[in-house]
């Protein structure tokens, strides 16, 4: 739970949004440590104040669940992200686009399917949708740019259905939602649920919006959910991938892969991007910056958002039953209130067990003349960081063969080796780069060799005496 002052500030922010945006009902929650730390609601659903179990339509947040199913299939070896769509769903006019490009909206596909505005009309079967697609469905060369595509996720839902020999929503329910305890997230509404409305732009009156089964396009925005269930989804995005005693829903490293930027949405500023099924955002608040992963959602009559900050272990969500009208950054404002009123405490420092062989490796190393420092991390991990703070810093995980694997930065995926010579010398070999205990140590196998006259004064000067 949050402190009373924090809760009051959050409730006021929510109340201002509901009143000024003229939203029939609005619920929001802040998640911390995997649990709802604060929940607020304004407006009415069926004459009652909505609660954390009231269903709202979540629109494109559905895409994140479909994406997790695709990544489960990848981890099982049922597909590769570099596979062209035609390998698994043949017969489309965009079969050369890869699974990764569909997940990251870089396939070049058109945004919407052929026919009427799909979000307000009953859906068609997959075969009919694919049959209506023509060469014009490809708007850009695959991989060229970010272009959001609802059609792409319709096709990914069909991929899931074919690989599981079951409807996509059944696979999502059985393999993701039920293990996470998200039993109130469904493909069609259940009671109690909010009804979707359009609010007149110039008068305080409502117009009911239609709700349909969208068939082939359902994987792009069909699902309904609750604040309680979306809080669990925020915790999942943060890294809580456990499935209630029946194993992990997704490997943590796969989830981290989904949260990595695959494409920047807004050019040089890089405030918005997309990973593998997740929207990404950078936000600077009163106590520093956040890198958020999640998704927004909109369908006629409904708006929704869920964001998570894995680095801080917090999430935020809101659900509204209006087609449009939300005026401000409610989600990040709630996170800013939390950070301002209750900044997190750093984890307590504790000593760790360090083997003598690793302890002897700590301290300064040199890549040519550039000084680096090597530190030991838990579980025999290492970090190699420029002393200046500028340059190629990476963390490394220990492997069973005595080498280390780069986890991030320039050396992500590369191998670090400790090489010992017969005369007691030691150097680090990092993907052909040699790090030595002294700048350009002549006793180490520095690529290209070291001038035998050593260091000297000025260009062409004499060696020091």
UniProtKB/TrEMBL annotation:
Residues 18-334 form the Beta-lactamase-related domain. Residues 441-453 have a biased composition (Low complexity). InterPro entries: AmpC-like, Beta-lactam-related, Beta-lactam/transpept-like, DUF7586. Keywords: Hydrolase. Gene3D superfamilies: DD-peptidase/beta-lactamase superfamily. Residues 354-437 form the DUF7586 domain. One of its GO terms (molecular function) is hydrolase activity. Residues 441-465 are annotated as: Disordered. PANTHER family: D-ALANYL-D-ALANINE CARBOXYPEPTIDASE (PTHR46825:SF7), D-ALANYL-D-ALANINE-CARBOXYPEPTIDASE/ENDOPEPTIDASE AMPH (PTHR46825). This is Serine hydrolase.
